[in-house]
Structure formats: structure tokens, C-alpha cells
Amino acid sequence: MSVRIGLIGVGMIGQDHIRRLTQVLFGASVVAVTDVDADRSKSVAEGVRGCRALGSGQEVIRADDVEAVVVTSWGETHEEYVLAAIEAGKPVFCEKPLATTQDACLRIVDAEVAGGRQLVQVGFMRRYDAAYRAVKAVVDDGAIGAPLLMHCAHRNPSVPPQFTSDMIINDAAIHEIDLVRWMFGEEIAATQVLKPRRNSKSALDDPVVVLLEMASGALVDVELSVNIGYGYDIRGEVVGESGTVALAETGDARVKREGLRSHRVAVDWRERFSRAYDVELQEWLDALSAGTSTGPSSWDGYAAAAASDACLEALRTGGRTTVSLRERPDFYMKAQ
Ligand code: NAP
């Protein structure tokens, strides 16, 4: 079975997902696209067999031949489209963040629960990355004892001019916020955000260090730098009671020379996580064909947004901010 997809927002990741859905994966065709930039969506549609450009996201969602929706527009616009897809009864894969605040995420959770069917998957793709999966397998196996700490770094070479300081939290750190909930299988209890010396090459509060206190007491520190220049560099190391496990960079060539060790650094997120995006969307398509859902849910989108809201509050106050979640509906209790 091939799923006919309508995609909203043909920017960087939208075009990358169209390539993936039409040239890499099995079981999908992209039949309609849209963008606020009509020329851009028209030229993208022209490059995809059987695809047309429509005037708005709502038109894409309503189109009779669109069976499932992919939302790859900016975060602020996600809520409107995800709610419309739920109302239309169509499965929707929404790039992260599900929405930029927990209130918006809860409106999605409520609409989905009221509809009685799980239709939403959030693009928390780190869960599909081979290196993160290998780290989680070691943690789950108990090989390093109970996890006590995790050190993460999330470094972007640069971000577009419209990227704000808040987005360092609710668009970038949201990846680590989701992955530590998944890695440790528990919720985040409190957050704190520290602002070290500012990067003079950046107009933002950049870098920041986000501290995430897990329900068990395990502590996660995340360095976020969004104008680091040298490349896209993602690090993670879990410290357990009796050992550590770290992400290994994929496909790197380690060079030892003149007393130094070096290896190539990915140029951006497309190169670093290319295979994870493939696995993520293929598993989504397979689940659609099987009439099930397996990936990060609206509840995961909401829990991540609640923690990122707490981080933003902690950033403003300089203090420790607790995270409280609504009781999790049974609806979202499936195994992942
Ligand atoms: P982008 O290149 O700016 O693409 C977004 C596109 O959506 C642009 O073409 C934009 O048009 C268009 N757009 C904006 N508002 C719209 C609306 N209301 N309806 C239809 N189209 C609209 O940004 P991106 O880097 O692809 O990011 C898009 C989303 O993907 C963000 O939520 C981001 O966090 C997420 N993302 C996720 C990952 C990941 O690792 N999972 C990686 C990258 C991005 P204009 O340019 O004219 O505004």
C-alpha cells in the first residue's frame, strides 16, 4: 500500500523529507505541497511526479487524495495544522516541536483523545539514530549500573536570522529534552538554565547550559551553542554507577598526527542524522499501513514542551523551575 501524502512547508527539512519519501523509502507518494512562498511550493511540486502545489495548509489537509499529512513549516504554525489534521481524521507527522508551548500541545492532546484515535507522531528523530539506540541499549542492559548523569552538547554552526534566543530552548534543546525522557524512561522533574560568557559572534543568548533534573534524581547537562561556526556537533555521554557510555560519531575517520587526534565533523543535521530520518519516516509509513502508531506521541510533544517552558522560565528567573505534568491519559500508555 502506498500512502498519499500532503506536505506543508517546503523549506529545508520539508524538501529533504520529500526527497526521502519519494526517492529513499517505500510506501509513500507526495501528492500535494504548500508553502507561504507560493513560488517555492510550485517549483518543488514541479520536481515531484504526480504532485501539485496548493494555496494553503488547510487546502492540503482537506484534499480528498491526501491520506496523511507531514508538517514541516515553522514551529509556531504547527498547532493549527495538527489540529486540522486531527479534525479531518488524517494521520499527521509533525516536525518537532509539536507546538512551541505546553498549552498549545495540550489542545492537541485533548483533540486527539476526544477523537479516540492516535493520529499524531512528532519528529523526535534522535530516538531513531543508531548511536543513541546503542547508548540506550547499554543503559537498559544495566551494563554501567544505574545512570547518574548525562552530558550532552548540541552545537550548530549557525542559525537563520529569524532564530530567537527562546528557540535555542524550544526548537533546539527540545531534542535533548525528548531524548533524555526516552533514554531514561522517566519524566523531567525540574530545570535550570545557565548563561556562560556570550559568544561575541552571536546576537543571541548563546551558548546556554540547560540542566534537567530527572524524576530519579539523575542530572543531565546540555550545552547549546547555535553559532559555533566549525560544524554540527552532537555529543552525549551517560555516566552510570560503574561505567560510562558515549555516542560515537558515525562514519568518522579518526586521525592521529603530531600529538593530536582528529576526526571529521558533520557539516549539518542532514548529514549527521540522515539515516535516522530515513528510519523514522519508514517506521511511520509502516505503522500507517498497519493501522497503528509507534513513534513519539502528542503526549511526548506535550511533556517536552512542558520541560522547555520550564527552561524558559528558569532562564528568565535564574532559578530552579519545577516541571509538573497533567496525569497521563491511558490513551498514551502504549509501549514504544
Ligand atoms: P525552513 O527552511 O524555514 O522551512 C520552513 C518552511 O515553511 C519555509 O519555506 C517557510 O516559508 C514555510 N512556512 C512558514 N510558515 C508557513 C505556513 N503557515 N504555512 C506553510 N508554510 C509555511 O525551516 P526548517 O529548518 O525546514 O524547519 C521547519 C521545521 O522543522 C521546524 O519546526 C524545525 O524545528 C523542524 N526541523 C527539525 C529538524 C529535526 O532534526 N527533526 C531539523 C530541522 C528542522 P518562509 O521561508 O517564506 O517563511
Keywords:
single chain, 336 residues, alpha/beta, Rossmann fold, Dihydrodipicolinate Reductase, domain 2, seven-stranded mixed sheet
Radius of gyration: 20 Å
Mean pLDDT: 93
Structural class: alpha/beta
- State the separation between the terminal residues, measured CA to CA: 24 Å
Percentage of residues in DSSP E strands: 15-25%
Q: What overall geometry do the principal axes of the alpha carbons give?
A: globular
> What ligands can be seen in this structure?
NADP nicotinamide-adenine-dinucleotide phosphate
Major sheet: size, sense and barrel closure? 7 strands, mixed
CATH superfamily of the largest domain: Dihydrodipicolinate Reductase, domain 2
The CATH architecture of the largest domain: 2-Layer Sandwich
Would you give the CATH topology of the largest domain?
Dihydrodipicolinate Reductase, domain 2
Please tally the β strands and state the result: 15
Number of domains: 2
How much helix is in the residues? 25-40%
Low-confidence stretches: none
